[in-house]
Amino acid sequence: MKALKIVAIVVLAYLGIVVAFESLIGFLQPTAGSTLVITTFDADGTPHDRVVSRLESGGQLYVAANHWPRAWYTRALENPEVHVSLDGEKGDYRAVTVTGVEHDRVESENRHGVFFRILTGFPPRYFVRLDPR
Fold this sequence. Notes:
This protein has 133 residues and is an alpha+beta fold. The chain has helices spanning 2-28, 71-78, 100-109, 114-120; strands at 35-41, 47-53, 55-57, 60-65, 81-86, 89-97, 126-132. A 7-stranded antiparallel beta sheet has the order 2-1-5-6-7-4-3, sandwiched between helices. The model has no long low-confidence stretch (mean pLDDT 87).
């Protein structure tokens, strides 16, 4: 019974670390030279901004849903007409779901380290290609 309590405490502590890290990222919205701001729209047209990492592969622009909180990704799938602020310039884009060989290529060119995966709780990773409109 004591071993079960220890395991439960370790699991709860780990979940607490993941929740704290994900919350901190969402709250701070870190920006750097490798980020962009994607504006997605919900069903009633309300805009929502999110800072995401900018990825490039094969001359195309991509973003990835790397974390458990991914409302921006869901909105982009539901309404793929998005706005992007990149390097001080704003533009209209179409968010295209990436699958198959293209997904594998982008993943292999933009891998996350084990430490990042541990901190984020091993979320599934999905990519969106941003095609200019």
